[in-house]
Amino acid sequence: MSRFQKILRGVVLFIGAVAFLFPFYYMIIGSLQTAPDPTIAGAFPNPSNITGENYTAINDRINLFQGLLNPGLFTGGVLLGTLVFGVLVGYALAVLQWRGRGVTFALALLVQVVPFQLLMVPLYVLIARDYGLSDNYLGMILPFAINSTAVIIFRQYFLQLPKELFEAARIDGAGEFAVLRRIALPLVRPALITVVLLTFIGPWNEFLWPFLITKEAGLQPLAVSLANYISNVAATAANPFGTTLAGAAVLAGPVVILFIMFQRYFISTDIGSGVKG
Predict the structure, then answer these.
(1) What is the DSSP string of the chain?
(2) C-alpha to C-alpha distance for 209 and 170, rounded to whole angstroms
(3) Is it the case that residue 69 has pLDDT exceeding 50?
(4) CA of 7: how far to CAs of 12, 15, 255, 262, in Å?
(5) In the predicted model, what is the mean pLDDT of residues 63-67?
């Protein structure tokens, strides 16, 4: 690339980064302002207008610790189900030979085009009325415990593994679960991290299903608590704009930190290290 092309690429990437990061920056700045300033100057506030009282105010109305604990338990249960079922089904679709494998994979792809909102009412009837799991963590987790996207990701990663590794392990007497645990899983660590990151964001920010299935405030995730706060309480707050942004900043914090810590795993791979040639 010429010098001009490098400079142009840098400018374009810088503009894209600023456009992407500005909403997060404005959220933090807005959560720290004593009085809201919706003008452009509000993005560069006067230090005298900076305070941490908005976080205290939102915590007085919403228990932020409990609000983060609830989506943490919800997300943890979804991650556990997604990884366990995703690995098992993905391995079976990629490595094992059995009748109906192609049809099962086609159904996994078909599920991708079915919107969750279409299934929400029958799921609510099934889980709340038939199973009696309303106002229950298990009731929140069950509809998301099996993720077809994770199944497809694991299948594609398992397909890239050399078949000789599995055959050698079977010749040595290893069963399929041993092959999966000792051979396959260590070689698809990037897939594990990718699935965790992709799955984490969904249930952590999920609003509609927890809002529908939980009525008890102590079980509601922070996203639902914030929506209730905006609808019922924010109008009486001294700085509703700042307190709402403070709650949003607390909700977004774990996702941003997790992505920054593990983003390199999206592109890393060590599959080649398993083969000597």
Answers:
(1) --HHHHHHHHHHHHHHHHHHHHHHHHHHHHHTBSS---SGGGGS--GGGB-SHHHHHHHHHS-HHHHHHHHHHHHHHHHHHHHHHHHHHHHHHHT---TTHHHHHHHHHHHTTS-HHHHHHHHHIIIIIIS--TTSHHHHHGGGSS-HHHHHHHHHHHHHS-HHHHHHHHHTT--HHHHIIIIIHHHTHHHHHHHHHHHHHHHHH--HHHHHH---GGGS-HHHHHHHHHHHTGGGSSSHHHHHHHHHHHHHHHHHHHHHHHGGGGT---GGGG---
(2) 44
(3) yes
(4) 9, 12, 32, 29
(5) 88
What pTM was computed for the model?
Answer: 0.81
CATH superfamily for 62-276 is: MetI-like (1.10.3720.10)
Q: What is the pLDDT of residues 15-34, one digit of tens each?
A: 998 998 888 888 898 888 88
What does the DSSP assignment read for 99-119? TTHHHHHHHHHHHTTS-HHHH
CA gap 167, 188 in Å, rounded: 18
106-134, pLDDT tens digit by residue?
988 888 888 888 888 899 999 998 888 98
Residue written as tokens 């109008």? 235
**How is residue 122 written in tokens?**
């029958």
Question: Is the Cβ–Cβ distance between 247 and 64 less than 8 Å?
Answer: yes
Q: What is the mean pLDDT of residues 214-219?
A: 86
**Ranges of each domain in the chain:** 1-51, 62-276
